Amino acid sequence: MAFESLSGRFQGILKKLKGQSKLTEANMDEMLKEIRVALLEADVNFKVVKEFINTVKEKALGQEVFTKVSPGQMVVKIVHDELVELLGADQCEINTKNKPTIIMMCGLQGSGKTTTSGKLALLFKKKMNKKVLLVAGDVYRPAAIDQLVTVGKQVDVEVLNLGDKLSPVEISIKGVEKAKQENFDVVIIDTAGRLQIDETLMQELVDIENAVHPHEELLLVDAMSGQDVVNVANAFNTKLHLTGVIMSKLDGDARGGASLSIKHLTGLPIKYAGVGEKLSDLEVFHPDRMADRILGMGDIVSLVEKVQEEIDEKEAKKAANKMFKGTFDLNDMLSQLEQINKISMSSILKLIPGMPKVSEEDQQKVKDQLKVTKAIISSMTPEERARPDIIKNSRKLRIAAGSGKTSQDVNRVLKQYDQMKEAMKQMKSKFGGRMPKF
User: What is the spatial distance between Cα 49 and Cα 83, in angstroms, rounded to a whole number?
Assistant: First the structure.
């Protein structure tokens, strides 16, 4: 996460404060000085830092709060609330009540608009069950249209491809007309990347805006480009009526200060955050949840949402029922392990308060172990998978040879299966033999 370093600093600072029996102006100033340094090192704009510190100090020194909570709790709440305010206070997800909702994507050359357009289309399609049309409006960059067509196929969303003979304005008009005629819910116009100083291309965006009147004009900016994102946003906003920002690469190791500065300095809310390279790696940006993560409070709501997205609920219930009834076999175990493997452990753990960071090496070990388990179970006969108790020494040797593994590997898989069955027996006993609701 882009705020990982800042998060560590904040947690350390606030932990020291929690040890104070009372809050004085002296220890308050010391804490604020450390917060100031942490924010500046995270590349947060100096003006933003100054206002943030002044606001926290002013609120923290209010005598009324002191009698209600401990000094540490009070300051944590104030810092949390001010971080939420800094990040945008209200969550600003796109309203799709207009049909079609017209979205124009803007950004610098090479910022990744085409891929992000596909990510946004997938998010609307998957999470909101919307019928989406992608419009290929970049007629300048070689292969830009082909790239959008490829992305459209990957997310199973229709792409309007009119080639590069018409102007982007004409293509945008035809895209909106098609969306209206064919009952699309959302139309996303992928425009060409441009430089801030390119007056001709900037005017083209103005012409598209005047022609189709987008409900949303989103600027894609890179979280790793530092404070320059504010200059980029201001440059585009002087020409256009931007409605929000998509912040890409928030999963990177950049300092993340741009995210904490942009709303305060430009007035533009961050609406979505890119958190990975996969087309599914785009999230609605929730200021309150991000503040929770920065302060080490975790993000349980996002955790639940992520698990629900990745795990097949019907399969999970089916396996749980079989385990409870004692009919759970090796096929079911493999299915459950594959479900779990869909979820990135590092992305899950960072949402749980107080959990350690999992290294890429450890994650790879888990994936490698799953491959071994899959190879071993695949080498078994259907009867062996259904009745693991019949697997004796001769069968183990055959399974090991067929999978290219060892007898010890086969024993490990069988032991893991026995452990899962034993855990379910204990659960059954705990619930008095009655199946709990899943």
Answer: 11
Instruction: Kindly give the residue spans of alpha helices, DSSP state H, lying in 19-166.
Output: 25-41, 46-60, 63-66, 71-87, 113-128, 144-155
Q: What is the pLDDT of residues 26-78, one digit of tens each?
A: 777 888 888 888 888 888 888 899 999 988 888 877 644 444 456 666 777 78
Q: Quick one: which of 436, 213, 175, 228 has its CA closest to 324?
A: 436
Q: What is the CATH number of domain 4-87?
A: 1.20.120.140
What architecture (CATH level 2) is domain 101-298? 3-Layer(aba) Sandwich (3.40)
pLDDT, tens digit, for every residue of 178-197?
A: 999 999 999 999 998 877 66
Containing 381, the helix (H) or strand (E) segment is none
Look at 99 and 292; give whichever has higher pLDDT. Answer: 99
Which residue in the block uniquely carries the two structure tokens 């939420």?
84
Query: Pairing between strand 270-274 and 244-248?
Result: parallel
Q: Which residue has the tokens 């291309």?
A: 201
Percent of the chain whose predicted confidence (pLDDT) is above 70: 77
Is-cis flag, bond preceding 100, omega within 30? yes
Q: What are phi and psi of 355, to 5 degrees?
A: -85, 145
With 60 as the cut, is the pLDDT of residue 14 above it?
Answer: yes
Name residue 90's amino acid: D
CA dihedral 174, 178, 184, 188 (to 10 degrees): -20
Characterize 179-207 residue by residue with b for buried, 16 or more Cβ atoms within 10 angstroms of its Cβ, and e for exposed. beeeebbbbbbbbbbbeeeeeebbebbee
Q: Give domain 310-430's CATH superfamily.
A: Signal recognition particle, SRP54 subunit, M-domain (1.10.260.30)
Check: CB of residue 56 under 8 Å from CB of residue 35.
yes
Q: List % helix, strand, coil for the chain (3-state, nearest 5).
A: 60, 10, 30
Measured between alpha carbons, how far is 212 from 426 in angstroms, rounded to an integer? 63
How far apart are the C-alpha atoms of 308 and 348, rounded to whole Å? 12
Looking only at the bridges linking them, the beta strands covering 270-274 and 282-284 are antiparallel
- 119/318 Cα distance (integer angstroms): 31
